[in-house]
Amino acid sequence: xxxxxxxxxxxxxSLSGTQSYQFLMLGLEGAGKTTFLYKLKINGYKKADVxxxxxxLKEVKQDPGYHFEELSSPTIGQYSIWEVPGNDVMRPLWPxxxxxxxxxxxFFVVDAFSxxxxxxxQENFRKLSKARDALFHLLHEDELRVSVFFLVLNVNRSTExxxxxxxxxxxxxxxxxxxxxxxxxxxxHMKTRFRKVVLNCANISRKDSNWENILKDFRKMQVQIQxxxxx
Length: 231
Description:
Oligomer: single chain
Order of helices and strands: HEHHEEHEHEHHEH
Strand order of the largest sheet: 2-3-1-4-5-6
GO molecular function, one term: GTP binding
Organism: Cladocopium goreaui
Structural class: alpha/beta
Binding site for GTP: 27-34, 86
Shape: globular
Keywords: GTP-binding, Magnesium, Metal-binding, Nucleotide-binding
Radius of gyration: 17 Å
Pfam families: Arf (PF00025)
């Protein structure tokens, strides 16, 4: 843990004085966060290759646990993403990142691509409940009170069939409801800082219009938040 604190502190020092936006990418283990990050970082990087490379890095003990990448966008300029694992060991360390860093936005990723993720069984209810609790906790953390939040449902849409698409949308809406989205959207102070999005994180790139639209939304929301703080 001390090594992790030191690494984050050193990285923070190297970023001091820059105009780069800082994002946290969080979620439970297996939500697709690492694939999401490296699909954004490296154009054409395939999901299977990301997974294989991460396995190799762990085997040779070169994986620090979290991942950090610097990116750029015509919409917001320079920005950085910290992707932190969501297993039982790393979740208690999440606060270390947003207490050492000024986090402008959080991407909370939820698995909606696994073949069994929509099964109505005890394990899925447990996972969704854990994800919901983590999301609500983050939304009310003092250090993140002016951070923009995107709840990302990581899907695997593979068909254009209208009936199938309608079924998928119903399943996605059910997941959003179980994650407490209707309750969040009713909170007055969340209207300018919370959005829900549906993305195929294994089929995204930094140049994708969907990603650029998310960054545009982020910038608009941040301006609104800053204006509320100043008023």
